[in-house]
UniProtKB/TrEMBL annotation:
Residues 7-124 form the Response regulatory domain. This is Two component, sigma54 specific, transcriptional regulator, Fis family. SUPFAM superfamilies: CheY-like, Homeodomain-like, P-loop containing nucleoside triphosphate hydrolases. It is found in: Cytoplasm. The lineage of its organism: Bacteria, Pseudomonadati, Myxococcota, Polyangia, Nannocystales. GO terms for molecular function: ATP binding; sequence-specific DNA binding. Residues 401-412 have a biased composition (Low complexity).
Amino acid sequence: MSQVQHRILLVDDEPNLRKVLGALLKQLGFEVHAENDGAAALARVRAAPPGTFDVVITDLRMPNLDGMGLLKALQVHEPGLPVILLTAHGSIDSAVEAVKLGAFDYLEKPFDKDQIHQIVQKAITTRERSGPSVQPSPPPGEIADPCAAAGMVGRSPSMQTIREIVATVAASPSTVLIAGESGTGKELVARALHLGSARRSQPFIKVNCAAIPGGLVESELFGHERGAFTGAVSSRAGRFELADGGTLFLDEVSEIPKEIQVKLLRAIQESEFERVGGVKTLHVNVRLIAATNRNLEELIRDGQFREDLYYRLNVVPIHLPALRERLEDLPFLVSHFVQRCNERLGKTVQGLTPAALAALERYPWPGNIRELENLMERMVLFASGPLIDEDDLPDAYAGEAGASAPAAAESSTRLTDPGDRQIRLPLSSLGQDLKEAVKAGSRLVEEALIREALAKTDGNVTRSARALGISRRSLQSKMKELGLRESPDDGGPKGPPPQPAS
C-alpha cells in the first residue's frame, strides 16, 4: 500500500474498464480520478495547479482526443507528468512508438495487479527523484547551442570547458561517462549531447538505475518475454529497444547489480542482446550516456563494479563541478530560476537584493543546483514584493559561512563587558567565538561580542550578523534577549531600558 495518497488520472472511454481498473488502483492505495476521453482529461489537468496529478493512465484509442494526442498535449502543458498508455495486444507497436515519443510506459490488456503497481510506483518514484524518464525530442534541424537548449546555465571557466567538450563529442557515437555530485546537472549535459547529435529527432530515453528494484533491472533494460518470470503476463520491450536510433541515458549507473553488468557490457560493445526468457538476438543502434555520483574506481577496488565495464563507459569522461566550485555562475542561475518560477507560478519577482545574493554565495550548497532551484521556487512562491532580501531567506542560507564582514580585516579588538572587564579577542574569529560563548553559556562574552560587532559596523545589524556568523533574524532575537535595542534608523544598539526607581 502506498504511504502517500498519490493522485492518478485514469482516462478511458469504457465505463467497465474505468470501474475495474479504478477499484484496483484504489486497493493499491492511490487516489483515482477518472475521465471518459482525452479532451476531458486535458481540460482537467489544465484547470488544476501543476503537480496535482502524479501519473496519467490513458487508453490509446478514444473518441475526441486519443491517448497519443493527450500525450503530446500534456508534454507541452506539464512536461514532467508521467503518462502510461493502456493498449490491447494488437496495438503494441503503437504503444512502443508512444514510449519513444515521451510516454513513461505502457500496460497491455488484460492487466496484472502486480505489474500495474510496479509500473505506477516506478513512474511516481522516477518523477520524484529526477523528473520524466523520457523526454520529447525536438524537431529535426541543427541546434546552434545544444547546451543552452538543454537548459545549461553558466559562464564559469569550468562550464565553458564542458560546453567545448559537448560541442566536440556530441556528433560522435562515443560513449560518455558524466561524473559529479548529486544535483549538479548531469542529465542536462546528457540532454545537450543528444541535442547536438544527428539523433536529436530520435528518442532520448532516460533510466534512473537507482529507482529500479535490483531484480527488475535486467527486464527494464533488455525487456522480457511472456512467462519469463512470475508476473510477466505479456512480452515487453526494454529501454534499449525503445532507444533504438536515439540516445539511452543510464543515470546512477553504479547502482546496476554486478550480475547484470556483464550483459550491459555486451550490449554496449556488440549492440545486441536477448530479452529475459528469450532466445532471439536483438540488434539496436543506441548511443549510450552514463552518469554517476559515486567514485567508480573505488567501487572497482571494493569488487562492486566491473573494471571492463568502467573502461567501456569511460571513453569520454566529463566531470561536473559542484556549485560551490563555480559560484561565479550563481547570479545567472538565480536569474534563470526566478524567471522560470515566475512563469510557472504566475509571479512577478524581479530577483534578489545584493545582500541576499551575497548570503547565497557564502552558503556551501551540499545539494548543488537542485537545492538552489528548490530554494528559488520557495522564495518566489512566498515573495511579497519585487525583490527577495536577505531577511526573507531561511536562517540556514542567511548565516555567514566565514568571517567576511568588512570589520573582519582587523586582527584584533578590545571588547568590554557590562562589568567593565576587558576581553581581548581577534575580531576575525567573531563567529567562532560567539559559537563557543553560546556553547559555554558565557552570557557576558556573548553580549560583549555582539556589542563589539555592532560598534564596528556602526550599528548595521545585517553586517554585524555576517561577522558573527548568524542570520539577521537570529541577531535581532539575541539583542532582544540581552536587552540591546536597535535604534529606529538602525544606527546602533541601545543599552538596556532604564530601570524604574525603587
